[in-house]
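Morning, I've got a small favour to ask if you have a moment. You're getting the sequence in one-letter code plus the fold written as tokens. Thanks so much in advance, here it is:

===
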Amino acid sequence: MESSDSHRFAFIPVGSSHFHRISRIVAIGCGFACCGFIALSSLQAQETPVPSPPPINAEIDPGQADLDEAVLKRIDAETNRDLEAVAALIESALAKGLSEENDAFARKMLGSVQLQRGQGLAAAIIRLRGRQQLQAKTEAAEALSEAVKHDPELAEAHMLIAQLNLLPDGDTDQIRKSTTAAIKLYEDNPQEQSKAYLLRAVTHTDVEEKLKDLKSAIEADPKNTGALRERAGALLQKGDVDGAVKDLQAVLELDPTNQQIAQATVQQLVDLDRADEAVELLGKTIAASPSEGLYRLRAILYRMLGKEDDAFADLNKALAMQPRDPISLLQRAEIALGRDDVKSAKRDLKAATDIAPQVEQIDQAIVVRCFIAIEEGRMADAINDMQILIERNPNDTFRQIQLASLYLQDDRPRKAIETLTGVLASEPNNASVLRSRADAYLAVGEHINAIADYEKALSSIDNDDNEENQRILSGILNNLAWVLATSPQDDVRNGERAVELGKRAVELTEEQEAHILSTLAAGYAESGDFENAILWSEKAVEQGAAEDNEQLDQLKKELDSYRRNEPWREKQETEENQLPILAPEDLIDT
């Protein structure tokens, strides 16, 4: 059964209102039993002899004596056992018989007693465990059932019955029945009626029915944040994202310091690729009540938007408010790595783990440590950390690809192939993984296998508008064209197809990537069109010089080759690194 924070138990303590109601009824007309009780109290207060109560008319009220005793015991009843005794006396009085007036009073009183019992037992459920908890729940349900049986107008009892049925193994139909009764009884109390509508709403599996009750709850009490939150969830389920966000924003307007709601709303906006709106919303929340948590959250959003400087500023504010916040320190360390500031990254990582040593084992800290190792050229340490991350989440394809990339950087291409082959066993058409394995095959000179993977990757995303796939498409086109143009294996080369693929890659990158311009030139050279080969190779050299490309020397050598009417040939063959990878306990301390 669905539930949310807004439906947690809010047990209503028995206050003086119940006693005043009973006293008022007693004072108005419970016969001489009432008079005897009032006189007894009064005389005791004056320390005078207590007269005997008037004689009971056994014919009219045979249960009057038990009722009188129940009234007396009710005042001092504190424990569940005391209340049970009072209830037993009232039930005895009813069984023996009472006048119409006293019968009505007795039933009202019995309902009140059973409500108080139910409230006490329900409150005990929270602190009890196991069999005792189940017993308390059962007894509470029985007491409340008796309460509404004898006094159907006890709205509190109806609501508490509904709340009890929110617990595991509760009865959804009973929740609806009880909340429906409470809704009618609370006609003059809109705030309580709103709570009843909200409680009934969570029982509906039909979204429209749920929204109907939630609308009534909000109309009864526009400040019912629980109903607004619940309606936001129902609207999302229906696909009305704007309506859901509007409700969540309304919650924040009512309670701008509610970080939980702020985070939930932000997450909804992020999921909808509306991070700018999320940043604006957080700005309002921070203005109302600045906190390190909200600054940290906005910093994460700024990073998603590529605004690293703004993120860095927010993290500094978060740390100014809470200098011992390890998560903010780790976030700042990641930004430092992006700025190639390894020294600052190491300092923040150390500070975070000094504050909370257990942080060293969380994923974010391991990622920071891993990339520090990469920057320092300690590839074995980086590989070890990446393996830890993958062991924690074996289905994380992104980390698998990262591990394969680390293997390639550490001259372990066959380990990369092994890793990626494992991923492809479950995701055979994953273009990104196919492209990475093809790159690894190139590194060991297995051009036929590389081409097969590139072709399969290309066919799986060629007509796919997915942004991520479009991002890797130019790389697949370029690498496939390169091997088709430059492989030393005669049966592998295909100049015409290399030119076709190279043109597409150049178009996708708007002639801004030197190595892709170089690939098109190689395709033309393989086709024997050295005029175009020289033309595109010159563009590659020019672009390479402009971007200070690390492969500029090779680009110039390729151009010289084409000027001699010689196509370019390249066979990469990496010698496998045989050094052992350190175990986690042998990692170098960063």
